[in-house]
Amino acid sequence: MGVVVLVVASARPVSFGWFAYAPVSDTTFTADGVHVFSTATLVGAVVLVVGLLGLAAWLGYRRGARRRG
Predict the structure, then answer these.
(1) 39-64 vs 2-11: helix axis angle to the nearest 10?
(2) Domain containing 68: what range?
């Protein structure tokens, strides 16, 4: 699921703009919530990582479980 979201989100271009320096105003402009990756890409990456961690935990449990003979 995370891979699908990551691939779909990566297909869309991320738009971000430039801002100019205004020497007269003596204030610094900072845009809130600006990141290089889109929100969908970040969500896809988080879902992928959580899924891989869950898979690793399950495989570790299965491998470490004692088998009764």
Answers:
(1) 160
(2) 1-10+37-69
Q: Rounded mean pLDDT of 9-18?
A: 65
Residue 57 lies in a domain: yes
Q: 37-52 burial, b for 16+ CB within 10 Å, e for fewer?
A: ebebbeebbebbeeee
Measure Cα distances from 12 to 8, 33, 38 in Å.
7, 19, 9
Nearest to 12 by CA among 39, 48, 46: 39
Q: Which pLDDT score is estimated for 40? A: 83
- Residue whose tokens read 């891979």: 3
**Cβ atoms within 10 A of the Cβ of 16, count?**
9
pLDDT band at 53 (very low <50, low <70, confident <90, very high): very high
How many domains is the chain partitioned into structurally? 1
